[in-house]
Design goal:
The chain has 88 residues and is mainly β. It has strands at residues 24-32, 37-42, 47-51, 67-74, 79-86.
Amino acid sequence: MSTATLPVLTKTPFSQSRTMSNRQYGTVKWYNDQQGFGFITSDFGGELILRHQSIADADSSLKEGMKVSYEAIQGPILLMADHVQLEE
């Protein structure tokens, strides 16, 4: 019988989310100003949740198709975009 120890999987609390990688790029899939919520499609594939609080310039209004850069962080369930900035 093996006595090897199995790894313990833990979930990082949302308040302690860590940055998964450096700055990444993507496109706004859709964004609802009234709800302050939307999605970004990563240039590498996949989607991230976009929240109003994560937009670096609070006066910016995001629209479908806009190019953005962001930092990917692990949210409670899905990856989230943080420190979102418009790219020209």
